[in-house]
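Is this the right way to post structure tokens for a design question? Let me know if I should format differently. Anyway, here goes:
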């Protein structure tokens, strides 16, 4: 699923948008949020994932992967 350009700049992503950006299913994103692995903000009954937090989470995991790969 491609994310339209106007949605790519959004500060708060819907679960579907975050899933599309990371090529994950919506249910997997909900699991990550429920386990506390992904930060999320609840606005009323909706769940939003701050883009900045998601980018930081991705960067940390990429750095950890690169560090593990270098130490081989």
């Amino acid at each position: 699923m491609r994310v339209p350009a106007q949605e790519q700049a959004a500060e708060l992503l819907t679960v579907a948008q975050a899933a599309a950006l990371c090529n994950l299913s919506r249910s997997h994103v909900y699991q990550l949020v429920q386990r506390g692995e992904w930060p999320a903000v609840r606005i009323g009954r909706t769940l939003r994932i701050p883009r900045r937090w998601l980018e930081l989470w991705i960067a940390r995991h990429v750095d950890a992967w690169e560090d593990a790969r270098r130490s081989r």
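Format looks fine. Someone answered above. Worth noting: DSSP finds four helices and three strands in the chain. The first strand starts at residue 12 and ends at 14.
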